[in-house]
Amino acid sequence: MGAKGKNDLCKLHQLVAADKEMELPGLTRTLWIFTFLSVPVAGYPNGKVKEACSSMRPLHGHFPQPSPVHTISVNVTVFRPGDHIKVSLSGPVFEGFFIQARNAENLDGPAIGSFILADERISQLLTCGRVKNSAVSHTSKSKKNHVEAYWVSPTDAPEHVQFLATVVEKYKLFWVKILGPVISQPNAPPLTIPTSITPDTLPTSQPVSHLTKSFNASGCGNTKFCIRNPPKCDPGAADCFFLSFKQNNHSMLIEMSGPSEGYIAFALSHDQWMGDDDAYLCINEDHRINVNTAYLSGRTPPVLDSENGLEDISWRVADGVVQCSFRRNLHLPAYKGRFNLDANYYIFLADGEASEGGLIYKHNRQPLITNGMYNVTDSPKDVGGSRSPLLLKVHASLMFVAWMTTVSIGVIVARFFKPVWPYSLFGKEIWFQVHRMLMLTTVLLTSIAFVLPFIYRGGWSERAGFHPYLGCTVMALAIFQPLMAGFRPPPHAPRRHVFNWVHWSTGTTARILAVVTMFLGMDLPALNLPDPWDTYTMIGFVAWHVGIDVLLEIHSYCLIRKVEVIDDDRIQILQSLTSAEAEGHTFKQIMLTIYICGNAAFLITFLTAIHQV
Hints:
Helix 2 runs antiparallel to helix 5, helix 4 packs antiparallel against helix 5 and helix 6 packs antiparallel against helix 7. By secondary structure, the chain is an alpha+beta fold. The strands form five sheets. The chain has a seven-stranded mixed beta sheet, with no helix packed on it. Strands 14, 15, 16, 17, 20, 21 and 22 form a seven-stranded antiparallel beta sheet that branches. A five-stranded antiparallel beta sheet has the order 5-6-3-8-9, with no helix packed on it. Strand 20 (346-354) and strand 21 (360-363) form a beta hairpin. The protein has seven helices and 25 strands. The protein is 29% helix and 27% strand.
């Protein structure tokens, strides 16, 4: 059976779990990222699974039940071309179903005839092959115990027709190709060929054992190839993701471990993008681990294989840590989608949630991806990886430097240091030169950072929420500011005050939007800084900046009051203007030094966190 057929058949079963889609968090904190990226494995509650016409079997890692509990009945046993035959499916409550009629002498052949619905609320018509309306399925996953439809026999109907049904009671409980009654045309010879179905080859169930103790990292880099996150972590630790490969002649022992209430998985890939990958999953299903393989096609949900070629499967669940091990041959030519292990690959390591029935959802965060391609059969290594692509790390770092440091210091210098640094440097006041240098640096850093996500994605990202839209707005305002400044009126021109207000308003809007954009970007799957630490730290920075700004505003106000000249016989009382200015300059310079140090501390904290992702 081809990969496409397997994918299509999987859809039939996954449709019964689709309303889980609505339970995932949305917008900026959603993770698909790559994921496996912020929706569950696709379900098809609308029953439109006509691609599953051939085998009628969902492939998702579970096996169909052997003894049907649902029955198919018809109202006649003899038919003629053009007759309408009532077909009923009944039994214990079920959610999904799929009904066809086939030649009783060739049950593996195509669907024949067409159907007419009895109740359009719970059933719908599908086209299998070239025959329109040749199958009936459900319209939703609502529970039901009885459905009816009318089969219309074609003019070229075979002498004997048998009805088949697949019934899905819940995700891991289903029956495939339940045999229904046989109806025959008048004067048809007796049916001599047994009304049975050629069974699909099911994998031999491998013996599964329980691990008695946790994995250990001894031998990493010496006798086995290891991937660990955080680097050098202990596989038994509650925060350690661990993957190891140990070769033994023509087979490979693979151990995988990580904290998860759902599943952990790794994939072998020819690039750093999800799609066309060989994946291996350990799924926690009712405190029992199922080890499955899947071939990832494009950015579609994984289709679990019914045959995987894995041996010596063992597993363990303790203290929220899932551990599983298995052995596979270096080459598995009989299993489509299994890569040869003696080649170079990027290695992905991911985790995510799973339902009680074993239905897996998109990973919670960006998968860990090795920094380079590795051949696990070469000399053993002990490597790490990153959950964020390098280009996006550089993008985030440059934006933090620009909008947390250079622009903030530049604004404070322009607002409070005109009287402090009035002297000229290269024909302009020092404060203006510093302000202009910092602002142009901000524009340069923002421009470089702006193009990096487009280079990485190869275009626009539809999964980043409002972050790219706000980012484009900030970029536009950042470019508009220096262009507007280039056309500013002279200091005493009548319209200078208009320019001042527009310049201030544009800059303030850009800074506010930049902070909002950074808040959203920190939790995107491609970066996903530690939460809620990142939010609290950013709030702390905003409070720090606003606090220093307010303190300098209060100081400026008090200074103005202190040097006020009281017109009493035109004698200035209190301090002289010169001494008051000197005192104010010293205070401002001290506050600027303190602000720069605090700003640098916040910046270094964020840059360190980005580096460690």
